[in-house]
Amino acid sequence: NMQTLVREYQSSLDDYIATANADSTDRKDRLKLDAATVGNKLLAEAEEMSIQAIKHLSIVTSRAMEKINHVKSILYGTIVFTFFLGSIIATRLVFFITRPTEALVKATRAISAGDLEHSISYRDDTEFGELAAAFNAMSKSLKIGYETLREEIAERRQTEQEREKSEKFLNTIFDSIYDPFCIIDRDFNIVRANEAYAKLNSTPFEGLIGKKCFEVTENRTMVCDACIVEKTFLSSHPSATNRLFSCPGAQKVWTEIYTYPIFDNEGTVTHAIMYIRDITERKIAEDSLKESKERYELAASGANDGLWDWDLKANTIYFSPRWKSMLGYNKEHIGNDPEEWFKLIHPDDIAQVKTQLSTHINGLTPHLESEYRILHSDTSYRWVLSRGLAVRDRSGKAYRMAGSQTDITSRKAFEEQLLHDAFHDTLTGLPNRALFMDRLAHVIKGSKRRRENLYAVLFLDLDRFKVINDSLGHMAGDQLLIAVSERLVHSLRPGDTVARLGGDEFAILLEGIRDAGEIGNIADRIQKEVAEPFTINLQQVFSTASIGIAVGSQEYEKPEHILRDADIAMYQAKARGKACHEIFDSTMYESTLQRLQMETDLRRAVEQNQFKIHYQPIIALQENTVVGFEALIRWYHPTRGIVSPTEFIPLAEETGMILPIGEWVLREACSQVCAWQKHYTMTTPLKISVNISSKQLSQPDFVKRVSNILDETGLDASCLALEITESIIMENPDAAGAIMAQLKSLGIHIHLDDFGTGYSSLSYIHRIPVNALKIDRSFVNKMFANDENMEIIKAIISLAHNLKLYLIAEGLELSDQAAHLKKLNCHYGQGYLFAKPMEVKDIECWLESGKTLFVPS
Fold first, then answer.
1. Residue 408 exposure: Cα atoms within 13 Å on the Cβ side
2. Distance separating alpha carbons of residues 667 and 696, to the nearest angstrom
């Protein structure tokens, strides 16, 4: 019946599940196959039982049939459900069996790849859980073992590296040792050596290690290394000895051999270090020193220096015969007591000598070197230089001192002369600027402490010294300076200081002044002395002095300041007319500042070409025609406007800037008149007159410079006239005459400017190669003032006619002046009567205006 069938089915299903549980290790495919087979079998049996049931129950009524059909439906559903349920159970069983297996395989592969950190996760106590736990324990053990092994390998590798490093370090040390070096064991085997040791023994380095030391040294004519090392093994102490090496075919070598024991932990000597130093050079030096000492002792007996040897312990001193003889003493006069030496030293020097001796004996100085005065037997003091060196024991204490003594009296005298020369003028013997400034600084400092101490500084400059120096020669100039120095010293009071600052400049320091009147009296006395004639080379020479005075005050802090003010006052005295003195005041300083500013502006004007040339026509009085022009420089100052030449020309002369200015004027004027000659047709070519300064004329190559300018501009030399004042000529008539003769030989005209206003030149006029005289405007302006002025002009004109010279009258402003000069046969004239000095464009307009008798081309 149905209940039986259900029980059988349930029993079969239980058997199936039991079988599946018992055989948990079977594979997934087999489980699926068995489950399908069981289902099919059950279905077949169910169908057979259904047929049989139908046969037995065919007689059942339709109600029973309906129930049977209902049961059948339930049975089919149950079968289908059972099939699907079996499939699900089989699938889950396969999952629970294969998942742990896969995890185990994955973990095994990870460990084989070196990943010892890998582990298997598990949650139960089944066989898989136990297997996973055992596997994880094995992995942990492997990891610990691997880490331990790795640490041991790293430690072993580090130890090996340290050993190699230490070995390399030792090899480097051995190889860097310059001297022969080796290590020998107790069996006398060489366990280590360097190249130097192999070279010393003429043995290849490669076969050296392991050899017996006596085998290496068997060819040397010396005690073998084994004998030397054996002493160290026996004594357990270092040893040192000197030996002479002598290998066949090699030179002899002196050596110092040192041996040192090497101990093990028990204190037993296991090895010995041998260190060999070549001392051949030292032995040679010692032998040379010995020979040198013998030669020195031999030479010292005949040398110029005296020797001394001081036994500091016994306090006795030995003086060589030469030491005594250089002071004029016999052997018996001086014993061996150091006090006899000290008693001869000058009292002012003894303290210094004892201090220097003490500092060297105490080791504070490397050697003794002392200069001092010592008494000669003739009672004079001689300068000597003592040199010495202390000999010390191991503790550094001096026990002996030896040295020499040299007579330096001549050298000291020379040094004193050098010192004197450093602060004195070599020509006059007077103090120089350095000594004067030093004394002046002391006086200024003293006046600060005692206000009643009055002082003054006089700055003196000789007038006309350059004229005398150039005309009579430098030797005569030097003699004049010496004579002036003597008179200055004679004019001053005791205690005053006179110094030569350089050239013809002198400075005087007056101390203890009572009042300004005393200063003036001293200045007058000086000028009176200097104004007296000097006899130089059997010829009388006259000179005067310009003196600037600066009176000391509390305002002066530095000597340079008061000397500067005295210098400023001296220039004011020269400006007044020379041969006088001026006392400095603040207005002079302002004037000097203005002068310095003008000098700065003038230098800038030269650089920036702020100059222009104005031209003033020169008229032939008889023909009333223009014959040329005089070039007159003008300074166009950027802020002051046109600056008069009388302001800046003297400054340019003094500073030397007249040289570039004068050359520029000469070149510019020659170029301009040459251009006018080409543009305007004249009966005679236009000429140009240019003023020349004394500095230009004194240039050694002045003539060549003028000639070059003529060549550059193309102007004919006959069209150039150089105007030179008679004061310039009279500074050195012979030299000036020679230069003017050279200029005249080129065809250049020479005009004597401002004639009659300077020094009397009548005695020289016939010797000077001039072409024309220029009558100064001061005579022309006053020609009608009185008869005397007219007579002067007539005399100048008559002189020019007699000497066959042309005449040019300056400063013509009135027609009467021109007419009268024309009657007196004056050749040329210039002045505002005809035209004022004009720029180039104005001159050209003037020329073309027809005011002169010429026709423009």
1. 17
2. 14
Domain assignment present for residue 135? The answer is: no
- Residue 840: how many CA atoms within 13 Å on its side-chain side? 11
Is 405 in the same domain as 523?
no
Backbone φ, ψ for residue 838 (5° rounding): -135, 160
3-class DSSP assignment, residue 253: strand
Structure tokens at 112: 């084989």
48 and 185 in one domain?
no
| Residue recorded with tokens 């502006």 | 601
Q: Is 429 left (phi over 0), alpha (psi -120 to 50) or beta?
A: left
| CA angle (604 as vertex; 603, 607 as ends), nearest 5 | 90
Place of tokens 């009397």: 760
CA–centroid distance for 805 within its chain: 66
Residues of the domain holding 56 = 2-109
Can you spell out the DSSP letters for 387-423? EEEEEE-TTS-EEEEEEEEEE-HHHHHHHHHHHHHHT
pLDDT for residue 724: 92
Secondary structure of residue 140 in the 3-state scheme? helix
C-alpha separations of 338 from 258, 310, 312, 354, 379 in Å: 45, 8, 10, 11, 20
Strands 687-691 vs 625-637: parallel, antiparallel or unpaired? parallel
**CA gap 671, 713 in Å, rounded:** 5
106 CB neighbour count, 10 Å cutoff: 11
φ/ψ of 314, rounded to 5, equals: -85, -10
CB atoms within 10 A of CB 817: 21
Total number of domains constituting the chain: 5
Q: Name residues whose C-beta falls within 8 Å of residue 365's C-beta, 6 or more positions apart in sequence.
A: 356, 359
Q: Could you count the other beta carbons within 10 Å of the beta carbon of residue 562? A: 25
Of the residues 369, 387, 414, the one at which a domain ends: 414
Is 50 exceeded by the pLDDT of residue 223?
A: no
- Side-chain-side CA neighbours of residue 606 (13 Å): 18
Phi-psi map region of 611: left, alpha, beta (phi>0 left; psi -120 to 50 alpha): beta
* Residue 120, number of CB atoms within 10 A of its CB: 20
pTM over cut 0.90 = no
Distances (CA, A) of 83 to 87, 90, 199: 6, 11, 103
* 178 phi and psi angles, rounded to 5 deg: -70, -40
Is 683 found in the same domain as 817? yes
| CA 439 distance to own-chain centroid | 35
Question: C-alpha angle 610/615/621, rounded to 5°?
Answer: 165
Q: Please provide the distance, in angstroms rounded to a whole number, between the alpha carbons at the two ends of the chain.
A: 170
pLDDT in tens, 294-320: 676 666 566 678 899 999 999 999 998
Handedness of CA 559, 564, 565, 570 (dihedral sign): positive
Nearest to 551 by CA among 509, 501, 601: 509
Name the region of 570 (left: φ>0; alpha: ψ -120 to 50; beta: rest).
Answer: alpha
- pLDDT by residue (tens digit) across 509-548? 999 888 878 898 999 999 999 999 999 888 888 899 999 9
